[in-house]
Amino acid sequence: MQRRRVLAGAAALVGLTGCLGGSRPELGIHTGVGRLHPADERYLTDGLEPGGVRSEYAAAVPDAAGDAVGSAAPDSLAERLDGRRDAEQFHVLTELRSTPTEPLRFGTGQAVGWENGAIRFTTSVTPVESLEGELTTADELVYTAVWTVRPGIEELPDEVELVVET
Fold first, then answer.
1. Bigger pLDDT: 14 or 24?
2. Among 35, 76, 84, 104, which one is most buried in terms of CB atoms within 10 A?
3. Cis link prior to 103 (omega < 30° from 0)?
């Protein structure tokens, strides 16, 4: 099993440890929704850019984070970040780049927890069996997912460590 790690965000982990305080609740994934799409349809405002060099992206956002969603995002993703849900949760946004010849999506096995003061999100990657329509002709694809995590935490870290297992 191969593992790849990505740190998303700009803050240093040293500064992050202090803002999270000493007590950290046990985190768990409540729900998730994802979609494979052409990379030029930007679903997340700060996510992967078409033709960019990064292959993965992860960030933590509060429950009401409508500004994190781009205009091309479908309602199923945007509604997760509208803030009308339980305030005792937050979201982890993830993206994964692939191609029509080897399309990938996040698998069903995820775990979330704490490591060195950062949120650590582990997920598997699985191939997409078949593509239809514009997905077959796009230069590159992105799988975007929004994961709802509970309980909510007072201050979200600026970094999420994304561990992708293939």
1. 24
2. 104
3. no
